[in-house]
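Reminder: ligand-aware prediction takes two inputs, not one.
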Amino acid sequence: MSENTSNEEKKEKLNFIEEMIVEHNNNGRFGAKVHTRFPPEPNGYLHIGHAKAICVNFGIAQKFGGKTNLRFDDTNPDTEETEFVDGIKRDVQWLGFQWDSEPYYASDYFQQLYDYAVQLINQGDAYVDFSSAEEMDMEKRAAKASKYRGRSVEDNLSDFEKMRTGAYEEGTCVLRAKIDMNADNWLLRDPILYRIKKMAHHRTGDKWNIYPMYDWAHGQSDSIEGITHSLCTLEFEPHRALYDWCIEKLGIYAPQQIEFSRLNLNYTITSKRKLKELVEKGFVTGWDDPRMPTITAMRRRGYTPASIRNFIEKAGVSKREQQIEINLLEFCLREDLNKVATRAMCVLQPLKVIITNIPEGKTEEMQVENNPEMEGSGSHIMPFGREIYIEQDDFMIDPPKKYFRLAPGQMVRLKGAYIIQCDNYLTDAEGNVTEVHCSYIENSRSGSDTSGLKVKGTLHWVSATEALPVEVRLYDRLFSKAEPGADCNYLDDLNPTSLEVVSTAYTEPFLKNASADDRFQFMRIGYFCLDKDSSSEKLVFNRTVSLKEGF
Ligand code: ATP
Ligand code: MG
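Here is what comes back for the chain with magnesium ion:
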């Protein structure tokens, strides 16, 4: 590789949206300003796909010294709830972004949007249609004009007013834009702008009997807020012509819409509707069930905001539809947790080991490093005594060759403590090992080992008398197929063993002071965090991710 290329590669690479913005800035469009927005509909919690939209909108504004609005696209009173508004705000902030001034709401523009609609009617660009939904659909297919298309401005104004005041029942009529019933783009075949809904709205209450369609509210909301670049996902590409038509007819400020591809992740569903179904039908315990791909669930599971942002960065921004590997997300997660997690020990399937040459009641304090990856992270104390627990899997009566764990006659190092040798073991009537008897090598203490012994295996362990009994939740993928629902109902692809609860695990005693923000690496097992189900009687730990891929 020439020096030239490597120098160029060091320069920050711009994605295609950033390149467009640079061009706009160079030719003075938008006064070289960048003002983006993230426009969620508050009808559910945000998922990992939304994290992409958040990172793209906020990230690009940050890069160009611009601003980002958080705007709730709350035009549909059916499904929107204040709970979701609060959840979305928290998730955006947790991801590390702050919107400009206060959050905005499309519902704050209801009056303005209504006035705009009246303007269209006055210009002869919109009309009230009393046809049934079926009729309208048939006519659309047949490229045939509705018989209401040619009515007078006065009639349309009066009927639109009656829609607003509630004089007409739901389903009686709608307001349509008068565009082109022959347009190749179906969205331009006189789309509906308003429908009657006699329903209270989470913010405007009973004020309105009509509500704007998303397509009528969206473009104008961007215009009202002075958004420069309306970044959205590819499915809105055909809508752009409609937004542009509205803005041109109204003669108002025009943002530039730019579409990018959605984030799709294998083994994952990123559709709010389906995630909602999982919650409502009880396939998961809630929107924040740690197996869910929602931001709130990922936070609970122990994901860090940095790991999600790095993942989105690595997945990239383009117009190409693609499925990203969940392994990439987990790679970014491990990479970050490795830097920040406190190392600790936890035994999932305890097997008692008696160290026979330590007298009963005698304990020694072992000093264990908190995080070898982080300077100044300190250390903590681990009590070591006559009785300890190791994993059942770490002992075998009759081991194969190259088994470097514990077996009769074999030696292992206890992490952060001494080398022990197995002298004997006890079994129950079925032959299960119930207890292992060992002796420790006195001058083999970790850090001051003068024994000269070389042992290949190192085991994690906890003191049997001082360990903390805890519950540990081990998660596997929520779906067992890479593309859930590709060839059946996605519910049939749910993984029946996505949750394993280990209710009799033991951790080091210092974990009793763990707090929700702490991240742990349970040595040899994975990364963990405290779950919100913890109580003073029992702490519960979530496995955020295993230590290695495909563990
Ligand atoms: P869903 O399909 O899950 O219901 P949505 O698009 O209807 O998502 P909105 O609340 O309208 O949900 O989304 C807010 C913003 O997030 C939109 O601009 C949308 O394009 C973007 N977004 C939603 N899903 C994804 C995704 N998978 N990848 C990237 N952006 C997304
Ligand atoms: Mg949407």
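The pocket of magnesium ion (ligand 2) is lined by residues 41 (CB under 6 Å). The chain has three domains: 16-260, 262-345+467-551, 346-460. We will return to this case in the review session.
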